[in-house]
Design goal:
The protein is an alpha+beta fold. It contains seven helices and nine strands; from the N terminus they run ββααβαβαβββββααα. Strands 2, 3, 4, 5, 6, 7 and 8 form a seven-stranded mixed sheet that branches. The longest helix is centred in the last third of the chain and has 27 residues.
Length: 233
C-alpha cells in the first residue's frame, strides 16, 4: 500500500484555503505566519470523504476525512504548519505535499479528546517518502465505515512493522515511544562524544547501553505485532 489513493470523483472539493483563515482558526502568531509565507505556496482542500461521497457510514470519532493538498515553495515544511491546519479543521486530515514534480503523503492520528469531545488529540506525524507526482495511485482501502477507512489510510504511512495487530491508537503510541527513545539515544551519544573525563565516559557508556537495550525492546515488541492476526472489520 502506497498511501496515495484514487479518490471518488464525487468527493472532489477543490477549494483554495486562504492562509488568513488558517491563521484565524489556529490562532497563529507572527512566527507561524512567517513559516507559511516562506514554505507554503497554496493549500487546497482537495477531497471530502463523507457518507454522501463514499457510501461509508460515519463513526463517532470520524464523521468525515478531508484530503488537503499543500504545494511547497522549497520542499521543506515545518511540522508547525501541519499542526496549525489540523488545529483549524475539526476533522481527521490526510495531507498530500507537492514540490518540483514530486509528492509525499503525511498525517497524524487525530481523535476527539476523551476529556473534551470539542477538542482533538493529535499524534506525531507519519509520512511516506517523496515519489514522482505521476506515480500511479491505488484504490481506496476496503472498509465498512469511515473510521476503518481513516485507520487504513493512516496505517499505510506507518513503519511496516506497525502495520499489523493492535488497534490504531496502540500502534501510534508504540511508534511514538520508539521515536522518543531513539531521540534519547542520540542525545546520549552526543554527550558521550563531548565528554573528556574517563569516569564520566564510563557512566555515559553504561547509560547509552541501557537506552539502546530499551530501544531494541520497544522495536522488538512492535515487530512482534506483525505476527498477530488483525481483527476483521
Amino acid at each position: 500500500m502506497t498511501a496515495f489513493f484514487e479518490y471518488p470523483k464525487g468527493a472532489a472539493f477543490g477549494r483554495l484555503v486562504p492562509k488568513s483563515k488558517i491563521y484565524e482558526y489556529a490562532g497563529a502568531n507572527t512566527a507561524l505566519k512567517d513559516l507559511f509565507v516562506r514554505e507554503v505556496d497554496q493549500v487546497i482542500w482537495r477531497f471530502k470523504l463523507a457518507p454522501e461521497t463514499t457510501n461509508l457510514s460515519a463513526t463517532s470519532a470520524v464523521a468525515e476525512v478531508q484530503i488537503f493538498g499543500i504545494s511547497l515553495k522549497t520542499g521543506k515544511l515545518d511540522e508547525a504548519v501541519l499542526r496549525a491546519i489540523d488545529k483549524a479543521i475539526p476533522f481527521p486530515l490526510i495531507f498530500e505535499l507537492t514540490c518540483r514534480g514530486k509528492r509525499m503523503a503525511t498525517a497524524a492520528f487525530k481523535r476527539p479528546s476523551e476529556a473534551d469531545s470539542a477538542k482533538w488529540v493529535i499524534s506525531e506525524y507519519f509520512a511516506t517518502d517523496w515519489v514522482p507526482e505521476d506515480t500511479p495511485r491505488e484504490p481506496l482501502p476496503v472498509a465498512l465505515d469511515l473510521g476503518a477507512l481513516y485507520e487504513r489510510m493512516l496505517t499505510a504511512m506507518m513503519p511496516a512493522a506497525a502495520q499489523g495487530g493492535q488497534d490504531i491508537q496502540a500502534r501510534v503510541e508504540r511508534v511514538e515511544a520508539i521515536r522518543a527513545k531513539a531521540r534519547e539515544v542520540e542525545k546520549i551519544k552526543i554527550r558521550l562524544k563531548l565528554e573528556k573525563q574517563f569516569n564520566r565516559r564510563v557512566a555515559i557508556n553504561a547509560e547509552l547501553r541501557i537506552a539502546k537495550q530499551e530501544l531494541a525492546a520497544l522495536q522488538g515488541d512492535l515487530m512482534g505485532t506483525e505476527a498477530q492476526p488483525t481483527a476483521a472489520n
